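This section describes the prediction task in plain terms. A model, or a person checking by hand, is given the sequence of a single protein chain and must write out its three-dimensional structure as a string of tokens. No templates, partner chains or ligands are provided. The sample shown here is typical of the held-out split.
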Amino acid sequence: MSTFSDTPLSALASAMPTTSSANWKILLAVTIGCLLLYALQALSPIRLLDLLILSIESAEKTYFAAMEAGILGDTHATALASLQVRVSQIRQQTLANSQSLAVGLREFFKGHSFTILRGIRDARKFETEIEMLKEAHLQSLPSNRGISATLALRRRKTASPVNILTI
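The expected answer:
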């Protein structure tokens, strides 16, 4: 037998607001609004511009390392120059548009963010092509003990700590 009465519980339950369709609509509208604001922030041209600059700098670093190794020819120099010019134009346009919120939003909805994303993709693709050429060049060298040891040490740097212990 319970010594507690059910009346306080029923009074509390009746005081709680019931969930109506209007409450769900408000919750849905707030959720969609938050998702849109997050998407606007994530695809903000200024934020993406930072990623583009990091991508082109990484590609340039990889390019110059490959040039010092004597792996690349003139075609890659032309491709890098073209990529640098395109990145410079994108950066100039993005900085000009960032001075006004209205202009920035208009350019965002015109798809300027996707232009920046294409630039990031192209810079990473260029870097990947050079990395592939470097690997192919290393594999084509005559196999001797010094080169094999160098390859193993280089790959150890990029391996995770768990893999280093198992090598």
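For orientation: Residues 54 and 84 are 12 Å apart (CA to CA).
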